Amino acid sequence: MTTTTAPAPALVPATNGLLAAALGAAGRGWPVFPLAPRSKRPAIPDWQQRATCDPDRIRRWWRRHPRHNIGIACGPAGLLVLDLDAAHGPIPIRWARRGITHGRDVLALLAQQAGEPDPVDTFTVATPRGGEHRFFSRPSGSRLRSTVGARGRGLGWHVDTRGPGALVAAPGSLAVVHGVPVPYAVTWDIPVAVLPGWLVTALTPPPAPPPAAHPPPPPLPATSRRVSAYVQAAVTAECRNVATATEGHRHITVYAAAAALGELHGNGWISAAAITHHLTNAARHHLGVADFDARELTTTIRDGIAAGRENPRILTDRPAPRPRLAIR
What we know:
The strands form 3 sheets. Strands 3, 4, 5, 6, 10 and 11 form a 6-stranded mixed beta sheet that branches. The protein has helices spanning 17-27, 47-50, 55-64, 74-77, 93-96, 103-113, 197-203, 225-243, 250-265, 272-287, 294-308; strands at 32-35, 69-73, 79-84, 124-126, 132-137, 159-162, 167-169, 174-177, 180-183, 185-188, 193-194. By secondary structure, it is of the alpha+beta class. The radius of gyration is 25 Å and the shape is globular. The longest helix is centred in the last third of the chain and has 19 residues, at 225-243.
């Protein structure tokens, strides 16, 4: 009896897991970019602009850097991700009394209070430290705030949002937990749901209060004609910088503008009130309220002025431009 030996299977090159994960996220229409290995820190500058779904670019990136994690740019992806964290320390009494130990418990309670179902039916990823990312698509025309990193502005305890201007680590990325690499893992692989209306309402910033009959700006100080012209040109230039700032660079641009004009304040050439007035108008008119609430904008301008006035500007025949702050 003749026996036939089955042919040996063809050797298939090993697939880079992170490259495959990056291509998988891009295949869902989510622009991706590299993060530092086992980190959530962007590995490239201008990541929002450079995030891509182009498989050729993605292959080039991860073949050069096969250990890099994968970031998803939530703004270009049209995503609003609910970031629900587990407790890793004492639980506030107000939550402990209700038996709440996780951000998802808080979200379920918020839904109950709104008379809505817990928004669980959507694409969901378990994070390495016991948290959870629930992916939602942003309704067309919405301006939803990202609350990650903004203390006191989240929906509730351990409930944050990642939307325009924010990133999220894609499934397949790794983090080190107690010395062991743990992946971001898909736990509910269903289509991404549209963000429920009650959450859209909760995350839509309130409209900016109307200006009180367009009050005139505080007057510039009475100085020489040359200094007055110099100050006016500086104010115009810094307001233009704020107006043309790109998403992701707006906070640092407002701070830098306030610091530059603060150098003139240090010489007594312009008041802090005038700087605040002009930069606030530029930021609100051109950037809207998605990037700043009123308190954050005022604080950013105040801190910039304080930094600038420590280095009063020296007026020369040909003033040098202020140094640019590095954006990385």
